[in-house]
Specification:
The structure holds two protein chains of two kinds. By secondary structure, chain A is α/β, with parallel strands linked by helices. Chain A has six helices and 15 strands. The mean pLDDT of chain A is 92. By secondary structure, chain B is an alpha+beta fold. Chain B has one domain: Jelly Rolls (Sandwich), CATH 2.60.120.10. In chain B, the strands form two sheets. Chain B has a four-stranded antiparallel β-sheet. Chain B has a four-stranded antiparallel β-sheet with strand order 2-7-4-5, with no helix packed on it. The chains are: A alpha/beta, B alpha+beta.
């Protein structure tokens, strides 16, 4: 698959090391390629390399494609330094998506920690667009410190949005943070939902995913209704190179979204 | 039934306790209100109370020179606060500050320890209610200590 070449329209510094790039995804005379919440693109920084990055924008506006990138390595650092007018290679979208259709009429619990909010942001857009299709909707979001909070203007907007139970937790905070301190999983017992009719979507560091899934099961939410988005070292994104293999699964081809039932026995196995 | 007993019975901590034990334990309790900004306890002070929060929020803090008070945990409605009364030397390890107007049931620690010692069934019922939240907080503290939000799951581009 050949990359498309898209232009950076906007660069927003979310935190000291996280940047959202908005790409112009409207080819002249053509409909922009769409995507589903949870999918990712391979972003190619010319002369440096290519990495998988989750799409963080609203799927109903595919002409503007947001990717939120944390500077952790050579390519991601280069991507976060791009400015409006710069060009980037894009292959995708790849992977499956969050089970939004399966969540219709159910309570929906979205849990994110750190950069894990990125692939869930399109889910929030969808849930709020189609609010009447779902039961109670809650977002539990955890960050290391207030300085690491992503999408701050939107978080403030979501705080005031009727029908969304938003709970933000810091791992640690000084006097500037008036809200909750602890870990995102500690918010679970405070959420009102019907466990027998709740679908949960979880993304964050793997220890957070594992502890959240266990806590969700303890609440009575079945493993088949807990969905997690996994990250592994992807290269081809086509299920060919095997770099992102997790036992019988290729994260790029079979995921990145899996039910907890699919992966709960695989994640604790270090050899995988 | 007196007012304290009634308040205690309505707190999640008391779920499953029989009336006799509720009355027995409530004998160690008093009602207390802390305005926003006031301290329920200070680090190093004698841990002579533990609290069941009825309404409000308490920040568990420690002071970091150059940074000010750092909050490590917030405790809210329906939760318990304070475990230092359980183990010698019975000193609070952190400050407990009311973030907002906070209403609590305050239990005299010495009174409770004596009752638990005198009646091990009461002590066991207390432990059954203390251990789950303390284990949960320990697990949370481990995840906080890992600081795994600050570590990329994989550095695919290194």
């Amino acid at each position: 698959m050949q990359p498309r070449f898209l232009t950076v329209q906007q660069r927003v510094a979310e935190t000291a090391d996280v940047v959202t790039l908005t790409l112009d995804n409207a080819p002249p005379g053509q409909a922009p390629p769409g995507f589903r919440p949870g999918q990712f693109n391979m972003l190619y920084c010319f002369g440096i390399g290519e990495i998988p990055v989750s799409i963080s924008s609203d799927a109903t506006c595919p002409e503007r494609l947001d990717h939120t990138i944390r500077a952790v390595g050579t390519v991601s650092r280069a991507l976060t330094r791009l400015e409006p007018g710069d060009r980037v290679g894009v292959r995708g979208p790849f992977g499956n998506h969050w089970p939004l259709a399966a969540a219709v009429d159910l309570d929906v619990l979205v849990m994110a920690s750190g950069i894990g909010l990125v692939p869930l942001r399109p889910v929030l857009y969808h849930l709020l667009h189609e609010r009447a299709d779902y039961g109670r909707v809650a977002l539990l979001y955890g960050a290391r410190t207030p300085a690491n909070l992503l999408f701050q203007p939107e978080i403030e907007q979501w705080r005031r949005t009727p029908g969304l139970d938003l709970r933000v937790t810091m791992s640690r905070a000084g006097p500037e943070w008036p809200g909750d301190v602890g870990y995102v999983t500690a918010q679970l017992p405070k959420i009102r939902c019907d466990p027998a009719a709740t679908l949960a979507m979880v993304c964050g560091p793997e220890p957070m995913i594992r502890s959240s899934a266990v806590a969700l099961e303890a609440l009575g939410i079945g493993a088949e209704r807990i969905f997690v988005s996994l990250e592994r070292n992807m290269k081809c994104a086509l299920g060919l190179c095997g770099r992102c293999q997790l036992g019988p699964l290729f994260i790029c081809r079979d995921g990145p979204v899996f039910s907890w039932r699919q992966v709960q026995h695989l994640l604790p196995v270090r050899e995988l | 039934m007196n007012e304290i007993e009634d308040l205690f019975r309505r707190h999640p901590f008391a779920a499953g306790l029989d009336d006799e034990i509720i009355a027995f334990i409530a004998g160690c309790a008093s009602n207390a209100v802390f305005p926003a900004g006031s301290y329920l306890f200070r680090e190093g002070a004698a841990a002579d109370r533990f609290y069941l929060i009825r309404h409000g929020t308490v920040a568990v803090e420690t002071y970091l020179p150059g940074h000010g008070a750092m909050t490590v945990l917030t405790v809210k409605d329906g939760e318990l606060l304070g475990a230092s009364w359980l183990i010698p030397p019975y000193r609070y390890a952190f400050d407990g500050r009311a973030v907002e107007l906070t209403r609590v049931l305050a239990f005299n620690a010495k009174c409770l320890r004596e009752k638990a010692e005198a009646d091990h069934h009461v002590g066991y019922e207390l432990m059954k209610r203390f251990i789950p939240p303390l284990i949960a907080r320990l697990q949370i503290a481990r995840l906080q200590a890992l600081d795994c939000d600050g570590v990329a799951a994989v550095t695919a581009d290194d």
